[in-house]
Specification:
Blueprint lengths: L6 H18 L9 H8 L3 H7 L3 H21 L6 H14 L1 H9 L3 H19 L5 H24 L6 H12 L9 H12 L1
Helix pairs in contact: 1-2, 4-5, 4-7, 5-9, 6-8, 7-8
């Protein structure tokens, strides 16, 4: 992927991104071709492949940009608390709701989850006291799946909770203070009910 800062190249990349997002508003994602994107952007296929491997790479780039923006905002106010992370995540996603709604509309949750894995790995490296590569992979898989599905639900819900409510809920879940089983009897009853 292009890493330079040539203004013409950056504009071309932006036109390709805008073209795909515009096309996604008009037709199914599965029907959009690289040629369609290039025609809409008025750029060559060679230019496309200078920046992106395929159209999925454009979506992943957009999601990555959201997370980069979030990380940049977080580093401005160190030290960072979990509540800061969940608040910044929901703010960033809300600011990019057009992209998120297109992801939901076209069933591209796997791309959202793939990019979440990268972000969670960065956080895990910062806070893990006794890193275990194998355990970290399981923890990352759990968190990325859970958070991705929460995001997808938020953007597909007809009556979504507010950013603040979602940030608080996510913080409570991650700290273990949302789901609490206070009685061993409840666990046995839940198991018995599910077994029948």
């Amino acid at each position: 992927m292009y890493e330079g800062n040539n203004p013409i190249a950056l504009h071309s990349r932006e036109w390709l991104v805008d073209s795909l997002l515009s096309l996604m508003g008009d037709m199914p994602y599965s029907k959009i071709t690289v040629r369609d994107i290039c025609n809409k952007a008025d750029l060559s296929r060679q230019t496309f492949y200078n920046f992106f491997e395929n159209k999925d790479a454009i979506i992943r780039f957009c999601i990555h940009q959201c997370y980069s923006e979030m990380m940049e905002n977080l580093t401005e106010s160190l030290p960072v608390k979990l509540s800061d992370i969940t608040r910044q995540l929901t703010e960033t996603l809300y600011e990019n709701q057009k992209l998120m709604k297109l992801i939901v509309l076209h069933g591209l949750d796997h791309l959202l989850e793939m990019e979440l894995v990268s972000v969670i790995r960065v956080f895990a490296q910062q806070i893990s006291t006794a890193p275990s590569e194998n355990l970290d992979q399981y923890a990352t898989a759990f968190l990325s799946g859970a958070i991705a599905h929460m995001i997808l639900h938020w953007f597909s819900d007809e009556n979504p909770v507010t950013q603040e409510q979602l940030a608080e809920l996510l913080c409570r879940i991650l700290t273990g203070s949302y789901f609490q089983i206070e009685n061993e009897y409840l666990i046995k009853e839940a198991y018995r009910f599910h077994s029948n």
